[in-house]
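@channel sequence for tomorrow's demo:
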Amino acid sequence: MSYPLTRRFVISQINVICSIGIHDFERAKKQRITVDLEVLLSTDKEPQADTIEQALNYDTIREMVIEIATSRHFDLQETLARTIFDAVLALSTVDALMVRTAKPDVYEDVKSVAYQLSNLPH
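structure tokens (generated this afternoon):
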């Protein structure tokens, strides 16, 4: 059995210090979040040469995430994830993606509290 070829970048745990949360103590002090992305790349735009000019530069995605997360205060992870999702999906070589934001320092007995948004095919 043959399956269709897919091309994906998986970027794990971009660490960002940002202003996020609804509580007064969260508004008073920036906190660490992590962002994971799984990016489904367009199969019709596969690089024909071994040059970055023909590929999606994952530096671009990392920089977008950091810029968005530090641009303003976000009350909700949902809003931050949607803002990142919309920006990355607007890139011409991206067909679909998953964005997961996580707050790893919320509780001592919990690894993280995360929110995930995706339009990836199952």
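heads up for whoever presents: The mean pLDDT is 94.
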